[in-house]
Amino acid sequence: MTKKTTILAIETSCDETALALVQKQADEISVLDSRLASQVNVHALTGGVVPNIAAREHATALPILLKDMIDQHNLSAKSIDAVAVTVGPGLQPALAMGVTTARTLAFAWQKPIVPVHHIEGHIYSALLQGEIMFPALALIVSGGHTLLIHMTNHLQYRVVGSTRDDAAGEVFDKVARLLGLAYPGGSALSRLAEPGKAEAFSFPRPMIHGYDLDMSFSGLKTAVLYQLQKMTATEITAQKADLAASFQQAIVDTLTTKVKKALERYPARVLLVAGGVAANEKLRQALQTVAHGHHLPLRLAPLSLCGDNAIMIGQVALFAFERGRQNRWQDIDAQARIDLSLFSRHDWRSDSTADSEQNRTTKLST
Ligand code: KG4
Ligand code: ZN
Predict the structure, then answer these.
(1) For the CA of 283, the nearest atom of ligand 1
(2) What span, in angstroms and rounded, lies between the C-alpha atoms of 83 and 223?
(3) Residue ranges of E strands in 232-320
(4) How far is CA 349 from CA 21, 124, 323, 354, 357, in A?
């Protein structure tokens, strides 16, 4: 019988404290347990995530979730093969909570740590929704990221397009705020848009005409702001749904145009879509049409995995662990900014001095 690998995964890069227990035997992946403590209500009070408040909340929630998980599954050095953790990108003080916890567990259990890039997690939440196929094109749209990534194999990432300013989710949240909705307003905005007319206002679709796969969304946010400044409070109230629908359409059109351009340039057998904004129904439908037009299967992250969670981190870690991404607890740091391409390396193993030195140099140069 093939060996079972069991990993405890931790995610604290932003405003969700999450733990998951995942297992892989041959090609079979199972989620044994998952816990999540959301801080959205806390951050709604300040209209956005304050890094030190996020860290404080993680510090409160992590030991409680962890004790629960350890007690329920009788976790010990005997039952765990590795601890996985999101090392970046994210809010430094928030990431540090998860990383410190992972290091402590790895030290106590004498197990390796599998460092995971947050975006890898989002990608795998879509990749594993059916037969795994490569090459794959992934669109990751969240509160912090808007990325087009081409993958030729497991853990082989090439970022082929990204936003030059605001992320798609960030703009959803900012425009939602302009329309008087609470943080994070993406999902409330899409509900507000439901009865609205998407062609009522003509908002810009930035950078859609060039060859470039990069995106820019801050001009769209400003366009909505200028439009609101031209309207009276009564007009805004009467046309809120139209404003929301027109804005949403501009984002959806921009993203789908970029995905089409990417599919023309990079070979793909499957289109993957994940991240918080992938929960947007209009975007899901539009990308279904794009995938259909290119005769590709579309793998959308399930709604339960669109937002941040530790299941996705654990799932990446199972593949990475098998391929030798196993670090000593001493060699792991939280890194608020870290390049996805660094995680394409298969030689993260740090139990030889040479590798360890190489990893350190790479870290310092990012
Ligand atoms: O992936 P995620 O949970 O956190 C980050 O890593 O950023 O994404 C959160 C983002 C927020 O900006 C939120 O407003 C947005 O996803 N979002 C949506 C929808 N649901 C969540 N945006 C548009 N439509 C939605 N239905
Ligand atoms: Zn995320």
Answers:
(1) 24
(2) 45
(3) 270-274, 298-300
(4) 22, 21, 9, 10, 11
Q: How far, in Å, CA of 350 to CA of 280, rounded?
A: 40
The SS3 call for residue 336 is coil
Nearest ligand, measured from the Cα of 310 = 2
For ligand 1, residues with CB inside 6 Å are 14, 142-144, 169, 172-173, 184-187, 190, 275-277, 279-280, 307-308
Please report, for the chain, how many H helices and E strands are present, in that order.
12, 10
Q: Which helix (H) or strand (E) holds 7?
A: strand 4-11
Please list the residues that pair with 33 across neighbouring strands: 21
pLDDT in tens, 14-40: 999 999 999 999 999 999 999 999 988
Sign of CA dihedral 312, 314, 319, 320: positive
Ligand with smallest separation from the Cα of 117:
2
Q: Give the number of residues written for the chain.
A: 366
Residue nearest to ligand 1 atom 23, measured at CA: 186
Report the pLDDT value the prediction gives residue 142, as an integer from 0 to 100. 94
Nearest residue (by CA) to ligand 1, atom 3, is 307
pTM metric for this prediction:
0.92
